[in-house]
Write a structure and sequence with these properties.
Elements (H helix, E strand, L loop, with lengths): L13 H20 L6 H29 L4 H25 L4 H22 L1 H6 L4
Helix pairs in contact: 1-2, 1-4, 2-3, 3-4
Bound molecules: fe (ii) ion.
Fe (ii) ion (FE2) binds next to helix 3 and helix 4.
């Protein structure tokens, strides 16, 4: 069941909130397509979009970590790296097993995102805001 954005997850930085919302939207689009026929090409596209958007989003956060000398940068970057590695594994499985793994991928990513938003991402709000980023 796709989840939708909740203001509870706001990190109080517009650019980042918008990226998190976009990420959730991509996940929701994939979930929706699963129940439609003739979806293969679109799904491929969305899976590529999901991966590149994830990397783009991580790069955005990490650029601010470096710029603001954020004290928890290393543990946060480690979580990003772990997820990127997991997504790579799913990509390989997607190629060999096809659509059947997608419900698992979506569940995993939604759980990861919600947990990451509520724990790691919330921690940088103060640092980012103190540097004038809202
Ligand atoms: Fe993050």
């Amino acid at each position: 069941m796709p989840i939708s954005w909740s203001d509870d997850w706001s990190v109080n930085v517009k650019e980042i909130d918008a990226q998190h919302q976009t990420f959730l939207k991509i996940l929701a689009s994939i979930a929706e397509l699963l129940y439609r026929p003739e979806r293969a090409e679109e799904l491929d596209d969305l899976m590529r979009q999901l991966e590149s958007y994830m990397l783009y989003h991580f790069a955005t956060e990490e650029r601010y970590f470096d710029e603001f000398d954020y004290e928890l940068a290393e543990e946060h970057k480690a979580e990003h790296r772990d997820l990127a590695a997991q997504v790579l594994k799913y990509k390989t499985r997607y190629k060999s097993e096809g659509d059947s793994i997608l419900p698992e991928v979506i569940d995993f990513l939604e759980d990861w995102l919600v947990d990451h938003l509520a724990t790691q991402d919330k921690k940088y709000t103060r640092c980012f805001n103190e540097h004038g980023l809202f």
